[in-house]
Write a structure and sequence with these properties.
Elements (H helix, E strand, L loop, with lengths): L1 H27 L9 H23 L4 H4 L4 H29 L14 H26 L3 H26 L6 H30 L3 E9 L3 E8 L12 E6 L9 E4 L10 E6 L16 E8 L12 E6 L4 H14 L5 E7 L8 H10 L2 E7 L9 E2 L4 H7 L9 E6 L2 H13 L7 E4 L5
Parallel strand pairs: 7-8, 7-11, 8-9, 9-10, 11-12
Antiparallel strand pairs: 1-2, 1-6, 2-5, 3-4, 3-6
Helix pairs in contact: 1-2, 2-4, 2-7, 4-5, 5-6, 6-7
């Protein structure tokens, strides 16, 4: 199964690069024009590659499960952000190189007198600057995620549309039918993806709502939401995966939020998410009532133990609310009767805020589980580990042979904590490939 996932990832990666480089290949394929400056070809090449990447951004953010599965959602979203920045510089290099080649191109910036092909080009560049600037500075500007996501999509749509019109009107590099086919294909792919993500998929979610069964308070200002499908069967998922959750509005509203599933994958009578009060949306979770209709898009994520049936040992390292996907793993293993050794390093600021503390103690009776609590501000008389999880604590509890034996480590928590723990694991001998982390930095 793991090998198949690697081959699938390789296939999608190869296809992506083929689609990105196809405009450049067609440009270089001819026909050759004598006397055309090399700088002009370079300018057009940068624009073609950048625009191809921008068009494919709609695909890699469309949550197509068959693409997400071999990589994981956090990797896809991280790639989406980084490749978007690279495409920005490629597209922006197009006019800069033209101005270097011939200063007369500067006249095209005068959108009043410039031809329409130049107007669409300038408009596309301005929209691109807006898309990238808002994406990079959203958090500093304190723009709500849902509001930003809506306008990110709108601006990007007009940007791609304007750029495609600019290419077809410019004509010098799309004057032959076989070249036009490529950009027509990109246009169709763009429109199909847009239609799927904005119309078809939201309608599908609307037709399959979930109903709130119960709201349960937990330690650490966490609320567990228990759900059942209004119609049909319960969602199948692997322990550790997450869903996009929409409450109080429809899937068309772009107000969804990602939450890990905390219930056992074996249970088919309900689905649970445990949500910590950390912001405007999560603070309202406790106001949900039994019978309320909500919407779930998922499951997503390669952060799950479903790929590792042959693994000998597991190490789970949650920090704070990062315990939720780990609870799904522990509950599922208990329901499976799985007795493989598990070390749980659970990091929290205070002992009172340790979510699921009592249930973890009960699960220890059903599993081959050792729990190590690391409390940043421990209570008086605390005899366990304190402050922060480091290489010394990890080495104290992890047998040396686990580093060379078949051990898989699942890490979920605040980004600074995960970065520090990843380095500590490498210090005591664990390979990077054995460490799996769940990061929600894309929201």
């Amino acid at each position: 199964m793991k090998t198949r996932s690697h081959w699938t990832a390789l296939f999608w990666t190869a296809l992506y690069f083929i689609l990105v480089l196809s405009p450049l290949i067609i440009l270089l394929a001819g026909p050759k024009y004598s006397g055309r400056p090399a700088l002009l070809d370079l300018s057009i090449s940068m624009a073609f590659i950048g625009l191809a990447i921008m068009a494919l951004q709609f695909v890699n953010s469309a949550r197509l499960k068959f693409i997400y599965k071999p990589f994981g959602a956090d990797i896809i979203y991280h790639f989406h952000r980084q490749i978007g920045i690279a495409a920005f510089f490629m597209v922006f290099a197009h006019p800069i190189l033209l101005f270097i080649l011939d200063q007369r191109y500067l006249r095209l910036l005068n959108i009043i007198d410039a031809p329409w092909r130049a107007r669409f080009g300038v408009f596309s560049l301005l929209l691109l600057i807006g898309v990238v600037w808002l994406a990079e500075f959203r958090q500093k500007l304190k723009i709500p995620y849902a509001f930003w996501k809506l306008w990110h999509g709108i601006l990007a749509t007009f940007m791609i549309g304007s750029a495609l019109v600019h290419i077809f009107q410019a004509g010098n590099y799309t004057d032959l039918p076989w070249k036009q086919v490529l950009w027509i294909g990109y246009s169709i792919l763009f429109l199909l993806t847009l239609s799927f993500t904005r119309i078809i998929y939201p309608l599908k979610l609307m037709a399959n709502p979930y109903i709130v069964q119960n709201i349960k308070p937990e330690r650490g200002e966490v609320w567990t939401v228990q759900l059942k499908p209004a119609y049909g069967n319960m969602m199948d998922f692997s322990p550790g995966q997450f869903v996009w959750f929409t409450a109080w509005k429809t899937p068309f509203s772009d107000t969804e939020h990602p939450f890990s599933l905390s219930s056992s994958a074996v249970r088919k009578d309900f689905l649970e998410m445990s949500i910590k009060n950390v912001g405007p949306f999560t603070s309202k979770i406790k106001s949900l009532k039994s019978g309320d209709k909500v919407f779930i898009d998922g499951p997503y994520g390669s952060f799950n133990i479903g790929h590792y049936y042959q693994t000998k040992n597991f190490v789970f390292i949650p920090g704070g609310i990062g315990i939720t996907p780990i609870m799904s793993m522990l509950r599922s293993m208990a329901d499976w009767g799985d007795q493989r050794p598990v070390k749980l390093f659970y990091c929290n600021q205070t002992w009172d805020a340790v979510t699921f503390r009592e249930e973890i103690q009960e699960l220890s009776k059903r599993l081959n589980l050792e729990v190590i609590y690391i409390i940043e501000r421990p209570p008086e008389g605390w005899k366990g580990e304190s402050e922060f999880l480091n290489a010394s604590i990890l080495k104290k509890y992890l047998p040396a042979e686990w580093a060379i034996n078949d051990t898989q480590i699942f890490l979920c928590g605040p980004t600074p904590m995960m970065n520090a723990v990843e380095k500590a694991l490498q210090v005591i001998g664990f390979e990077e490939s054995a460490v799996h982390s769940e990061r929600y930095a894309f929201v």
